[in-house]
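INTERNAL AUDIT FORM
Audit reference: QA-55
Scope: verify that the stored structure record matches its stored sequence.
Auditor: D.O.
Record contents follow.
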Amino acid sequence: MAQRAGLAASSYTALALFALGAALACSDAAAPATSDVRVRVDRVVIDENEAPVVVLEEEGGTRRLPIWIGSEEAHSIALEMEALHLPRPNSHDLARDLIHGLDAEVARVVVTELRDGTYYATLHLRNESRSVGIDARPSDAIAIALRAHAPIFVRESLFESDADTEQAAPSAGSRLEI
């Protein structure tokens, strides 16, 4: 049984490598939109309902965008922000290593839209000849971008449409325990 599980994991990894390699070989990603605002991860906090939130802050500005995320992703982001590394790689470490293993890099991450209460993001990868944009959950894309030291952007329209949520962002006094 354990041998079958290992084979399934190896097959999954091989399939992921093949798909990423094919995407980089065949696709072109769109250039950064002029309406994308560069942000940094300000903090990861727990809100009053015990839900994790990653707070993105405009570089050189004051606007913030809170995004409610899963606890595993919050933990992964917080670990990277604190430069704490576990003895074994997590899934975000694995993704970064797969990307680098295919001679590619994370060019940027863009949080692109809010639809039906869910944020969407694109993870932009490139190698020496091609670029590709891959749909990703913002939390995963942010965790990978932090590990790859890649820039993170938010569409300008999200700051405009999220003004009410920004006011409800958890305070700096809230924090995530690692």
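Auditor finding: record pair retrieved intact. The chain has one domain: 2-167.
Action required: none
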